[in-house]
Design brief:
- By secondary structure, this protein is an alpha+beta fold.
- Helix content is 60%, strand content 12%.
- The strands form two sheets. A four-stranded antiparallel β-sheet has the order 1-8-3-6. Strands 2-7-4-5 form a four-stranded antiparallel β-sheet, with no helix packed on it.
- α10 crosses α11.
- The N and C termini lie far apart (133 Å).
């Protein structure tokens, strides 16, 4: 490379002049990359033999790699700095308000979890401003194929753009802290919560029996439009979790536009209710086994005659 520069000093001087003019007149990072590309083309043109050109291509490839790493570092550092300012401002506020240390630690854990999972972004809010077609593809890319795991979403193909446009409009992303109550036994559900990350424990509150552990791609809840009976289970998050929420109004809109989706939701709610009712009978049997057997035995025995007849000798 040094030999090339010494042999074609005048040509390289012209190349550097073009690079200086283009890079000084363009300020953004993409334009800066373009100026390096112009400089690379000029150097490549100045090379004579194939060996010299291969040397130039190797050096230029390394330049582009370092440039991309530099851009990524600058962008990530700036994003981290902005999110850190937001977290520090909240921690400082809590300290000034004399909030206990254990609660401040929970807030710090919350910000750490948000940065680890999505670098502080609310993905659905970010992509909602995109054009519909781009928003749909971005949604599937960001959620890493969660649609294929959710029963009432998996019946729709990726090409059903009208459905996915509505879903990306209606879904709301929310982060839940550990031990957040999502539903209580006896309540009538009014929303659907799809678990995107984390775990949700569904259990029988009075006995402590765990019905199921809901993980990524499964969901809980419902609406009175599908079942007016109260829930027989309580649900809470075990650790930090991220969920996609559909409100009752959103579910009504989706049900009117896509009856096949509503049918799957209704069948899933009925199946879950049947499963939980069966588990409740098992719990009742384990707690009151002896009493139930005693009642069943008394009902099966014929009543003894009374008073007992006397035997004549």
């Amino acid at each position: 490379m040094t030999l090339l520069l010494s042999q074609h000093r005048s040509d390289c001087f012209i190349c550097l002049r073009w690079y200086y003019i283009s890079s000084s007149s363009l300020s953004s990072l993409p334009c800066f990359s373009l100026s390096i590309f112009v400089f690379a083309c000029c150097i490549f043109y100045a090379a004579v033999s194939n060996f010299e050109r291969s040397q130039v291509l190797g050096v230029i490839s390394l330049l582009f790699i370092f440039l991309r790493l530099g851009i990524y570092y600058v962008e990530s550092t700036g994003r981290n700095s902005k999110f850190k300012k937001e977290a520090d401002a909240m921690i400082d506020y809590l300290a000034r308000r004399n909030i206990p240390d254990d609660l401040r630690e929970e807030v710090e854990d919350y910000f750490r979890f948000r940065w680890k999972e999505s670098q502080g972004f609310n993905d659905l809010e970010r992509i909602r401003s995109l054009p519909a077609s781009i928003r749909v593809h971005t949604f599937h890319s960001i959620t890493c194929g969660i649609a294929s795991l959710v029963d009432f979403l998996s019946i729709k193909k990726l090409g059903d753009t009208s459905f996915w446009e509505v879903m990306t409009e209606e879904l709301v992303e929310e982060v839940f802290a550990p031990y957040t109550w999502l539903q209580k036994e006896g309540d009538i559900p009014a929303r659907i919560l799809i678990v995107a990350r984390g775990q949700v424990i569904v259990y029988h509150e009075s006995s402590g029996f765990v019905y199921e552990v809901v993980r990524r791609g499964n969901w809980i809840g419902g609406t009175p439009d599908f079942s007016s009976s109260p829930t027989v289970a309580t649900a809470f998050t075990r650790d930090f979790a991220v969920g996609f929420i559909l409100s009752r109004k959103s579910i009504q809109r989706i049900s009117q536009m896509f009856p096949d989706v509503a049918r799957v939701i209704r069948d899933s709610i009925a199946w879950r209710k049947q499963k939980h009712d069966g588990a409740r009978w098992k719990i009742m049997w384990a707690k009151h086994k002896s009493q139930i057997l005693e009642i069943a035995a008394s009902m099966s025995r014929p009543p003894a005659p009374w008073p007992m007849p006397r035997v004549q000798r």
